[in-house]
Amino acid sequence: MNKWLTVEKLSKNFGGVKALDEFSCHFEQGEVVGLIGPNGAGKTTFFNVLGGMLEADSGSAQLNKKKLTSIPAHRIANMGIARTFQKLRLIRQVSVLENVMLSFRNQSGENLVSLVIRWSKVRTQESENYDKALTILKRVGLQEKAGDLADTLSYGQQKLLTLACCIASDADLLLLDEPLAGVSPSMIEIVLEKLRELKNEGKTIVVIEHNLEAIMDDFDRVIFMDSGRKICEGKPDEIRNDPRVIEAYLK
């Protein structure tokens, strides 16, 4: 088993509340894993620690044998990790296209020296990124919205835009926080179709989701969390029928 991303006994406390309580798990390259559990189970805290937005109190995480814990979020992003949030973090007053273009990594225009001395290279890269951004928007069905402000999109379209930004980052690990919540059934199928495509490209995808029925056919494994701990994991059907999962969702 290729444990590409390993998490060992991660713990995070908030004023005595154990948001993560020696949480351990692993993820293999090219699989889609669902992370489920009741509100307050620690799912988003896990993403925040893994993505560098929070520092763990103890424990470790390694991506392809490279340390993740205690590393700033921008460095973790450059290691090939991208994520979405429950509250969509788009730049709402710029265009859909510009949101995607800003998501490309290692842009020459971000370096002042390159901007002044190598302006021709910067312009060439910007032109290439413009074309790539349009291709990504076409892929998620937003090409006709390229020039619109992000704020004018429907909620479902904004979720697709956040996914497009993840694709633009060319990350190998995608952490998606409730990508199906609050969207129509037709939009759910579009999002799931894009996740299948990304999996086929070798991306590893971890998805926090409450819509258990929607994810069951598309996920390789499901991890069930409660009170900051991993309670059980396995194939979707195994987890769905686990008495501990049934009890948690019927409380």
Notes on the protein architecture:
- The chain has 2 domains: 161 residues, P-loop containing nucleotide triphosphate hydrolases (Rossmann fold), CATH 3.40.50.300; 81 residues, no CATH class.
- The protein is built from 10 helices and 10 strands.
- Helix 5 crosses helix 6.
- The longest helix is centred in the middle third of the chain and has 21 residues.
- Strands 6-7-8-3-9-10 form a 6-stranded mixed beta sheet, sandwiched between helices. It has a 4-stranded antiparallel beta sheet with strand order 2-1-4-5, covered by helices on one side.
- It has 251 residues and is of the alpha/beta class.
Count of helix runs = 10
Assigned CATH architecture of the largest domain:
3-Layer(aba) Sandwich
Structural class designation: alpha/beta
Strand order of the largest sheet: 6-7-8-3-9-10
How much helical structure, as a percent, in the residues? 25-40%
**Which residue ranges are poorly predicted, with pLDDT under 50 across at least 5 consecutive positions?**
108-115
Largest sheet: 6 strands, mixed
Short description, anyone?
With 251 residues, the chain is of the alpha/beta class.
What labels would you give this structure?
single chain, 251 residues, alpha/beta, Rossmann fold, 2 domains, six-stranded mixed sheet, four-stranded antiparallel sheet, 10 strands, 38% helix
